[in-house]
Amino acid sequence: MNREEAFKLLKEYNKNPNLIKHGLAVEAVMRWYAEKFGEDEEKWTVTGLLHDFDYEIHPQAPDHPLKGAEILREKGCPDDIIEAILGHADYSGVPRLTKMSKTLFASDELAGFIIAVALVRPSKKLSEVTPESVKKKLKDKAFARQVRREDIIKGAEEIEISMDEHIKNCILALQGVSEELGL
Known about the structure:
By secondary structure, this protein is an all-alpha fold. It has one domain: Hypothetical protein af1432 (Orthogonal Bundle). It has 10 helices and no strands. The chain has helices at 3-13, 17-37, 41-50, 63-74, 79-87, 99-119, 131-139, 149-158, 163-175, 178-181.
């Protein structure tokens, strides 16, 4: 499955523009890390785009991402992409054994959180988001309370990058697609 096919699938299963933007955001972070780690950018991009493709039709655990994985298998998606997508949900029971699966887990919550930080800025621009502003908001438990801070911490640990560097990397990746995200 290539990036074009993955994006078409994301849009087929999601009418909510925010879910599509989340897919684009995680795709950008995955692409950034694939380049940094010398990995297959196309595969990592597809994984980022598709990680929540089924969320609109299966918003409850464990249906998401388990039922989505069934759809991806039927469409011939590679097993390593499906395993990474399953692994981004701890409750799936699928361990994160690959660099790609660990990076997806590390990217998902943090990308969403950084976007939330941008949205409360007066300009609503990613260009104004700094690692310091993200760390400050992470300490505020009332801000974006649905975001699991422990997953953000655990994700950075799993990819063996300091939290400060991981936040900086994710901001840079997201700034690269700020126009697509409307931020």
